[in-house]
Input
Amino acid sequence: MPKTILLTGATDGIGLETAKKLASLGHTLLLHGRSQQKLLQAKELIEALYSSAKIDTFLADLSELKQVVELANQVKAKYSHIDVLINNAGVFKIANNLGEGGLDVRFLVNTIAPYILTKTLSALMNENSRIVNLSSAAQAPVSIAALKGLQALSDSSAYAQSKLALTMWTLQLAKQWADNTPSLVAVNPASFLGSKMVKEAYGSQGKNLAIGADILVKAALSDQFTGMTGRYFDNDIGAFSNPHPDAFDTAKNTTLIMAMDEVLTRLDVKI
Output
């Protein structure tokens, strides 16, 4: 049965490859990007490959949190239900790593923007829906001070902390949500895939992007992920596994979520 799927960061890399695979299966795609030109190019590319593709596009800069809320509101205005949210968009290295409120862009895009979309769009979802959060094998203990913009980090530290933070709140919300809510999973799509991010960060061509796209499609659709809410899938080993131990620490998870909520309040972002 065709599903309605929102995919962030869909204009290149793993996101675009995932979009093409989902379109080939006949699903309705809501594609997000931060460049109108690249969104149109992605849409035209997929429609050229699959003439019956059903594609809608949404423009937003996920480092601007009010734009993230507006993205969610636009989706809610056009769709009464979505089956899958794939929070794929991510940032590793950027020319200016400070965003609004002096916050590190890695935390804004990789951690807090998906949190906003998850909290807001879960209202359009039910117990059969899925939220897939793109984690990473790179996970490091989270500095709450850094998340709040009070401590500077290196690119690798900011990225690894932002991805553990994403994994932490994914597992915590899965614990807190009731039975009639969507399932939440965090997925490491595989290390050193050949995305623009990896090429810029490491100067490496990386592995085939299809490896990451295939597991995101499975996480969105396959029975392998049914009933797996609150779990972490490590595609480096091709199995559900344990993330960094901090993701199982309820006190740390709660502190993290409180800190994100404080950031949203400080920036007057209402969800």
The two ends are 31 Å apart (CA to CA). Confidence is low (pLDDT under 50) at residues 198-204. The longest helix spans residues 155-176.
